[in-house]
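Re-running DNA mismatch repair protein MutT to confirm reproducibility after the cluster update. Everything else is unchanged from the original entry.
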Amino acid sequence: MTNNGSVVVVSVSIVHGDRVLLIQENKPLVRNKWSFPGGRIEKGESIQAAAVREVKEETGYDVRLTGTVYEFISSLNSHVTLFHFVGEMAGGSLRPAPDEIKDCCWALVQDLTSGDIDYRDAGVMRQISDNLLSGNILPLTVFHPSLC
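Result of re-run:
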């Protein structure tokens, strides 16, 4: 969704035990860069519905959102606002969309801040990873019901 030149996007850390799912998108500008599943909010869609939809489209997984690490302004583009959620698998199976996703992997949460992973937006990924490691995850109730 765009609003006055700003883009609003969502992403999700799908946590499974001590691992989290990372993806490599198949877009030229971010090819070979790792990130969490996510994308733009469609017109009329809530931020949580967009997060669930994007995970399904990109990975094949159904996800149940369990919390948020809230919002970030992208360090790559000050006109992008990211709402990041934490979730768990609720069904489906890993079936990356070949036209959108180049690769997927389950990474140890503790390895997310190692500096060994080439991230799409390292600053934002570091913030999200630090929150996951410290358990600084907010309940979904931080969002006004009109956003959900």
